[in-house]
Amino acid sequence: MDRPSIQNEEQYEALRDQGYSKEKAARIANTENAGKKGGGSQKYEERTKKELYEQAQKVGIEGRSKMDKQELIEALRNH
To answer: Is this structure's pTM higher than 0.70?
Structure first.
């Protein structure tokens, strides 16, 4: 294989089938709780703009300082 090790191969393949990029599918499939259902995360709409900005910073979204709350949500969902 020409890609790094994937923790949850089944989830990776399912994400690729859904049209996710190799990078995004691998990032999701390699999370600590890959493949586990939980829904423990707070919805983006329920978070503050500051929380969204900090998340955008963690994942490297460019132009985040000029975004309003809704734009941050869109950027995070499409990253």
So the answer is: no
